[in-house]
Write a structure and sequence with these properties.
The protein is of the alpha/beta class and 757 residues long.
């Protein structure tokens, strides 16, 4: 007679439904990320032992390979190596975890799966091996976190809770963009990222391989692309690197085993300085060019009027297409200035010959030509949303990134019959600071605009988080990507109606243990800071973190907190004017961003301004930063006097900074609220005290800070950062008997000979 376990498994594989128990115990759900589409908890648990077997379908090599990956953490939890077999046991001596593609529900998506855990056996069933793999990640998250690490020791109770899960993704495209151009990242690190994606049921690695700052992919037809284009000078250092074609095949195969599709990005027509440094003949001017170490948008692009340009790009794409078997190739198409095309006789001749209206249509013609070529090779093109300018090519997938333009990008592209990938700056740019995009912000993303017709909504393939690396060398990437990518993973996988921020937050508190065990140096969220005290008097500060094992540490001397700073184990009383800075630390994770508060005993006294004249001094700094730099350490390109706060002294439309300096005349003693509304970033200091920091980017946002000031004049420093898109800066204030209003120019003065720092 077969065992009870074997009978259970055979009946389940045959599609026999199991009766539900009459009374369900109230069992807490496990902390799964992303949350499954449907989960039902049952009483009891399945005990793991060294005799537990993983059983796959007979002759199914792919399932056996997947089962072996699961056997590793299961074996750690059970205290010994588990057997993987395709034969059911003949006796009850062994407990069984079965992985099968037989008799799966026909209504499940290709990545969908069913998981049933009973005290007498486990059944994981899916229509595809990919679905089985997704289910395996769920099983792994049901184990103690320590089971993911050989160095963690014995993980603890070896049991899986009894439950039933039916699960499948909401969106088919769930990914991460990894920029390896601004900062080169090792082959092993790219594999590490792929492992992290797979663990969170993400299935696309959008690999940014070419840029102004580096060409990272070996092209045998054009060896100078990596001999020259992969390297740049940074001071006395030669910096860069590239992936050989053997490296790329290895990474693609590694990703395939984890059901992650690698989508390469080869930038065109712009963002190609590294390529032009190697082959200047494909530019409009002929060069010479150098691989740049600066960030930004550069005028030199591929010459659209030169047929040799397209022969070059086609040969490049021939090799790219052979290396990446996936359906899509990303061609960028973003931020392409038209300056060189306007002055280029060949480009102007192309506009005339093709009957085009202007340079925008020339870009569209460029994209259509490349798309047609790739279509002939069985590939589909995707590009950033500027690909819509001048006319959207049929069949091209649009990646929405310019969040300041709003969801109209999504609605217009879908209405035109084109697929869309959603990754707006407003929610998905995880290179931005936590203060701009935190975990709650990315979790609030809704990829499908409200009211979109179902036939258009079906065009929204899914979304990506974008990890641009201008300010993130490899050691910083984990902390920028996680935990924020976990939030996006749930947005893209779980049903919209199942998403709940409070519930997700609670599950994430336990998920940090898993991230640490997996070797993912996720950033600890900033600690919660609460103050209690009267304005102008002593303040009691309480600091707390929800991350298990994390410790909040603080300083009062102006220095940044570090792991050896005092612990904020209890309330902290501040009875003198000082600034408290705090951060949360946990071994194996990236320290949190700082939080700070300033205690001021009484108002800041007025300062002696000396001889003054109306207006402010404005220093202009050309450059591309994704956060406001320390202008005091930089030399301005120009200094002028302005009668009021105005961003027009910026001589370029994009990529510059301004520092305004002078004094503000305060009418009366009291507390004042200052608000900065800016696109992009802004920051306000009064008498050297940081009052407002508005570190937004690419869209308008307002932030407010408060400070107690005595009547009279106070030193003012106002910083502004312009990146892409609109530029605007407005300063508002309110105070005693002073309603909210824009800061009057009549209240601003400066010392005419004062140096700008």
């Amino acid at each position: 007679m077969r065992s009870v376990v074997a009978m259970f498994l055979m009946l389940a594989a045959a599609g026999v439904a199991f009766p539900q128990s009459g009374i369900q115990a109230a069992v807490a759900e496990p902390a799964l990320v992303p949350r499954p589409a449907q989960i039902q908890m049952d009483a009891g648990a399945f005990s793991l032992t060294r005799s537990t077997r993983l059983v796959t379908d007979p002759g199914d090599r792919e399932l056996r390979r997947i089962a072996r990956t699961l056997a590793v953490p299961l074996g750690r939890a059970a205290g010994g190596q588990l057997t993987v077999t395709d034969r059911l046991p003949k006796s009850g001596a062994a407990s069984v975890i079965r992985l099968t593609r037989q008799n799966a529900r026909p209504d499940l998506a290709p990545e969908g799966y069913e998981l049933e855990i009973r005290a007498d056996g486990v059944l994981l069933r899916a229509p595809t091996a990919e679905g089985i793999f997704r289910g395996v990640q769920t099983v792994r998250q049901l184990l103690p976190a320590a089971a993911e690490s050989a160095a963690a020791g014995k993980p603890g109770p070896a049991a899986l809770p009894c439950l039933r899960i039916t699960d499948q993704p909401r969106f088919a495209w769930r990914g991460l963009l990894l920029d390896c151009c601004r900062h080169f990242m090792s082959k092993d690190y790219v594999k590490h990222v792929i492992d992290a994606l797979a663990y969170h049921k993400l299935n696309r690695l959008h690999w940014h391989l070419t840029e102004d700052q580096g060409w990272r992919i070996e092209i045998k037809a054009f060896p100078r692309l990596t001999q020259v284009g992969a390297w740049r000078g940074e001071g006395a250092e030669r910096y860069g690197g590239f992936y050989t074609q053997a490296d790329i095949r290895e990474i693609v195969a590694y990703a395939k085993e984890r059901y992650v599709t690698v989508v390469p990005e080869i930038e065109m027509p712009g963002h190609c300085t590294a390529a032009l440094a190697a082959y200047p003949e494909f530019s409009c001017t002929g060069g010479p060019f150098a691989v740049t170490h600066r960030w930004g948008v550069f005028d030199d692009v591929y010459c659209a009027g030169n047929d040799a340009t397209f022969r070059f790009l086609e040969k490049v794409l021939d090799e790219v297409a052979a290396l990446f078997p996936g359906e899509y190739i990303h061609i960028g198409a973003d931020e392409c200035p038209k300056t060189r095309w306007q002055a280029c006789p060949k480009c102007q001749a192309r506009i005339t010959a093709e009957g085009l209206k202007d340079e925008a249509e020339l870009q569209s013609w460029f994209i259509r030509r490349i798309a047609a070529y790739l279509r002939g090779k069985g590939k589909r093109v995707t590009g950033w949303d500027e690909i819509m300018e001048g006319g959207l090519a049929e069949g091209v997938t649009v990646q929405y990134w310019r969040g300041w333009l709003g969801e109209r990008i999504v609605t217009e592209a879908a209405a035109a019959g084109n697929d869309v990938i959603v990754s707006p700056t407003s929610h998905c740019y995880i290179d931005y600071p936590w203060s701009v995009i935190d975990l709650a912000k990315i979790y609030s993303l809704e990829p499908v605009p409200a009211g979109m017709p179902p036939e258009h909504a079906a065009r929204v393939l899914g979304g990506e988080a974008n990890m641009w690396a201008e300010y993130a060398p490899q050691p910083a990437v984990d902390g920028k990507v996680f935990p924020r990518l976990a939030g996006l993973a749930e947005v893209l996988w779980s049903p919209r109606e199942a998403r709940d921020w409070a519930d997700f937050s609670n599950r994430m508190n336990g998920h940090y243990d898993r991230l640490a065990a997996l070797g993912i140096a996720a950033m600890v969220p900033p600690p919660r800071l609460e103050t209690d005290g009267a304005d102008g008097g002593p303040v009691t500060v309480t600091l707390a973190t929800t991350v298990p094992g994390a410790v909040v540490r603080y300083t009062l001397d102006g220095t940044a907190p570090h792991p050896d700073s005092p612990s904020a184990a209890g309330p902290i009383r501040l009875d003198r004017t000082t600034t408290l800075r705090a951060a949360a630390f946990r071994p194996g994770l990236t320290p949190s961003p700082e939080v700070r508060t300033t205690c001021r005993i009484g108002p800041l006294p007025a300062v002696s301004a000396g001889d003054t004249v109306p207006g402010l001094r404005a220093a202009y700094y050309p450059g591309n930063w994704n956060a406001i730099p320390d202008f005091a350490a930089l030399r301005p390109a120009a200094v002028t006097t302005v009668p009021a706060i105005d961003v027009s002294p910026g001589r370029r439309p994009e990529f510059f900074g301004l520092r305004f300096t002078g004094f503000i005349d305060v009418p009366a003693d009291g507390e004042y609220a200052f608000s900065l509304r800016s696109d992009d970033g802004s920051r306000l200091f009064i008498d050297g005290v940081l009052v407002v920091e508005n570190t937004t980017a690419h869209e308008s946002r307002e932030q407010t800070g408060r400070i107690r000031l005595a009547a009279g004049r106070h030193g003012l420093v106002l910083d502004y950062l312009q990146m892409l898109g609109d530029k605007s800066l407005a300063v508002f204030w309110e105070g005693p008997d002073l309603p909210r209003q824009q800061l009057p120019a009549a209240r601003l003065v400066h010392a005419p000979a004062a140096p700008v720092r």
